[in-house]
Task: inverse folding
């Protein structure tokens, strides 16, 4: 009975459940963010060009993650709904199908991505001294993206049940492994004149990530087996089925497209920023990694709200979904008040750990100051998306992403940078306008869909 109480989110105190899920998830995300800062730190020790190379790779990295994130979010929503309906056998079957289908899809896109790298970086305006560094990183990270996808999908079954401690533990382990592997693989290791590990520079940063992701996949699979998630498994369930593929597609494709649109949106920001030189590009790449520190707890709240919404949608407990939304938004506002101020105060000091270029520091810190205004809009956006995923109505996530990442930035950035003559600061202020308008639209739509779903359930 105790095991059931742990993963049944259709009963119990809502604030307590949210804290139980969100806190471990937030701690894990914090270490994942610090992981990225470690990468940035060591890239900065190579050169400003290496920092710019990682900035150029940020949207490419998002594309590599898109399949894993899409399948993870979609699978988690389906599993949580099946659990709410008290159909654990169906939850297991859709989970296994997701593992197989996501692996096939990921493998099928690796080669085209590798072939398109140079044209993509050329389109983004990569400087001649930055391009080879960007390619070194991208080729390794894309080749190993299968492990990132597998880790995300394996974790989806845990998240749907409210188990976030396992992934937290792996993210903490991964952070400490990265501390050691980054410099070891970047600079190499020799004994006398004998080279044990060759110097890999940017490729070493990427290889460290691939190795850690492979270890993570093994660890999470082992833990899932120990929790009995694979109990009752039959060999035939591993065979991809068209009906299951269609069920997954209805949830996965909107989420995946939203994430791809986000990657394209980063291309848009990077494209506009590149007009203002390598320093501006390096400042943007550095600052967004610091910005993620303040957003860490919101990721935990998003995971909690998604799991609770999914299970209670399956159980038709819409009163609990309403309460969960109110509690999560309130907690998010407290986080905004408590975390944004330290980031704004110490942001420049954090930036300075990766570079001593004063122009990069100035531009990056101004980005953080301006983005403080839009911090809470991200929380609203993330939580609204979780509600829509849990309700199995994710299409608006894709359309809102298209507005927020592509259409609105292209118009607003052009107007502020060119017409108003604000330069790179027009991009920073444009993000405030775009994100807050998108947050309002998405929150309204998620509440409307919840009301519609509740009305349908009464019929």
Result:
């Amino acid at each position: 009975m105790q095991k059931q109480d742990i993963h049944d989110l259709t009963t119990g105190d809502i604030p307590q459940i949210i804290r139980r899920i969100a806190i471990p998830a937030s701690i894990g995300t914090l270490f994942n963010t610090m992981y990225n800062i470690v990468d940035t730190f060591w890239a900065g020790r190579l050169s400003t060009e290496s920092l710019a190379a990682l900035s150029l790779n940020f949207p490419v990295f998002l594309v590599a993650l898109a399949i894993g994130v899409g399948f993870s979010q979609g699978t988690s929503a389906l599993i949580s709904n099946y659990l709410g309906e008290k159909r654990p056998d169906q939850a297991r079957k859709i989970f296994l199908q997701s593992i197989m289908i996501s692996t096939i899809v990921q493998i099928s896109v690796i080669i085209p991505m590798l072939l398109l790298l140079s044209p993509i970086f050329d389109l983004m305006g990569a400087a001649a001294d930055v391009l080879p560094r960007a390619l070194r990183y991208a080729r390794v990270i894309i080749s190993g993206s299968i492990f990132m996808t597998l880790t995300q999908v394996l974790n989806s079954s845990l998240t749907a049940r409210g188990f976030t401690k396992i992934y937290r533990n792996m993210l903490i382990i991964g952070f400490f492994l990265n501390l050691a592997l980054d410099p070891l693989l970047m600079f190499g290791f020799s004994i006398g004149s004998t080279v044990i590990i060759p110097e890999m520079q940017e490729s070493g940063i990427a290889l460290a990530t691939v190795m850690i992701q492979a270890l993570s996949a093994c660890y999470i699979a082992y833990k899932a087996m120990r929790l009995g998630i694979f109990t009752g498994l039959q060999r035939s369930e591993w065979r991809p089925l068209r009906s299951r593929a269609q069920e997954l597609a209805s949830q996965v494709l909107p989420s995946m497209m939203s994430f791809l649109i986000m990657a394209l949106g980063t291309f848009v920001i990077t494209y506009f920023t590149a007009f203002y030189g390598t320093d501006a590009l390096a400042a943007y790449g550095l600052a967004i990694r610091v910005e993620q520190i303040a957003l860490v707890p919101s990721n935990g709240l998003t995971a909690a709200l998604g799991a609770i919404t999914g299970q209670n949608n399956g159980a038709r407990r819409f009163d609990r979904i309403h309460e969960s939304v109110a509690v999560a938004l309130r907690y998010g506002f407290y986080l905004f008040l408590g975390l944004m101020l330290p980031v704004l105060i110490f942001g420049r000091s954090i930036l300075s750990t990766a570079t001593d270029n004063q122009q990069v520091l100035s531009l990056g810190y101004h980005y953080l100051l301006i983005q403080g205004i839009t911090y809470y809009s991200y929380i609203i956006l993330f939580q609204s998306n979780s509600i829509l995923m849990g309700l199995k109505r994710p299409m608006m996530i894709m359309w809102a992403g298209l507005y927020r990442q592509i259409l609105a930035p292209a118009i607003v950035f052009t107007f502020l940078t060119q017409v108003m003559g604000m330069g790179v600061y027009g991009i920073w202020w444009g993000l405030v306008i775009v994100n807050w308008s998108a947050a309002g639209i998405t929150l309204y739509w998620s509440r409307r869909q919840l009301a519609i779903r509740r009305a349908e359930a009464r019929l």
